[in-house]
Amino acid sequence: MTTHVAETTPLLALDAALDTLLGRLEPVGVERVELSHAAGRILAEDVRADRPSPPVDVSAMDGVAIHLCDAHTLASDGLSIAGEASIGAPVCSLPVGTAMRIFTGGPVPTGADVVVMRESLIEADTIVRLRESADRIRLHQHIRFAGENAICGDMIARAGSRITPAVIGALASVGAGSPLVQKRVRVAIIVTGDELVSVAQTPTPTGLRDSNGPAVASLLAQRSWINVVSVERVRDQKSELAAALRQAMQSADCVITTGGVSMGDHDHVPDVVESLGGREVFHRIAIKPGKPIFAATLPENRLFIGLPGNAVSALVTARRIALPALAAIAGAPSQCVGPDARVTIADDGHDMGTNSRTRFLLVERVGPDQVRLLKHKGSGDLPAAANSDGFVEIPQGSEGVGPFDYYAWSDT
Ligand code: AMP
Ligand code: MG
Q1: SS3 at position 32
Q2: What percent of the chain has pLDDT over 70?
Q3: CB 311 within 8 A of CB 215
Q4: Ligand located closest to 256 CA
Q5: Ligand 1 binding pocket includes 286 (Cβ within 6 Å)
Q6: Range in 3-7, 109-113, 395-399 with the lowest mean pLDDT
């Protein structure tokens, strides 16, 4: 009879398991996309300014441009308005002893070194006069100088940064209309289990609706650098699983399964992965819940992650192990999958259980740096998970109320 070897050897710690896995992964590569499709993607090139910003000296206010030496005349007799320094038009020149109408972003005329804002002026016919003392006017006031934001060649956005709406704006402003970005990681999800039916079907009295497929898919799909290409359900049969896995490997960079990784007679995932050329990275690690998790590399730089079947286990391991691995192959910075906060646990006498493994505990967030533990009945308690905002991670050997890392379910 075979013994459960893993029961007698110490389990790999979470950080060691993740480090080993990340060390075996290759990024998926890069592509150019239209700027309108680049939001949320990871930039794969440094983008630099192609011209100064602003390109010329411009006004920061609506008002008039004058020369400082005419400030006193502006306050006493007023200055005649020579015209308008129109926005987007070539730089004009200011006739000596006059004022030129100007609007925000308009090019400051040569010969002008001050902009006086409209609120300080009285206009009558073609004469403009200052309402207040000329002593308040300062050289260069309300002028944005050419290149004060960036000079030609300055870094606008770095490779590896996430393309936020502000980055989209900056890329547009320097003419980067199709930036080089990391390809999205294609993920195929396969849920395993003879007991499972789809959400649209009625389960048998002892069966269950598949909740892991929709839950894990939605957790991953919150990240714009992940593309969930398929979610499929198979029975606990080696041949059926092998066929689904072979198919998934055609269209995905990473295959994620749920269930079938424990020690039961119907837990075929590790065997099937190995039969298709997969190489185990780890199986069973020192976490609770989620201990049975299995990870492997597949041929052609593909990644395989076998999440446990229990609903809470599947979700926490998807967030804490699958997501960082996917970030590594997406070229996404590790911070974007790091903890969402450091929090302490409001001490209400909850039993936090064993500390021989890293624990993930469902929590409600009650403040920016405080959470409350939620009662739950174990790793299948999906209603408790649905009531939670996320989970805290209590490292192996830790006691007390923290601070600990907090992971939110929602990527907001
Ligand atoms: P397994 O890891 O396959 O032994 O599954 C562990 C537990 O999780 C069993 O009680 C399963 O019924 C349950 N389970 C497995 N897969 C799913 C799923 N896709 N949706 C909901 N529950 C599941
Ligand atoms: Mg199962």
Answers
A1: strand
A2: 96
A3: yes
A4: 1
A5: no
A6: 3-7
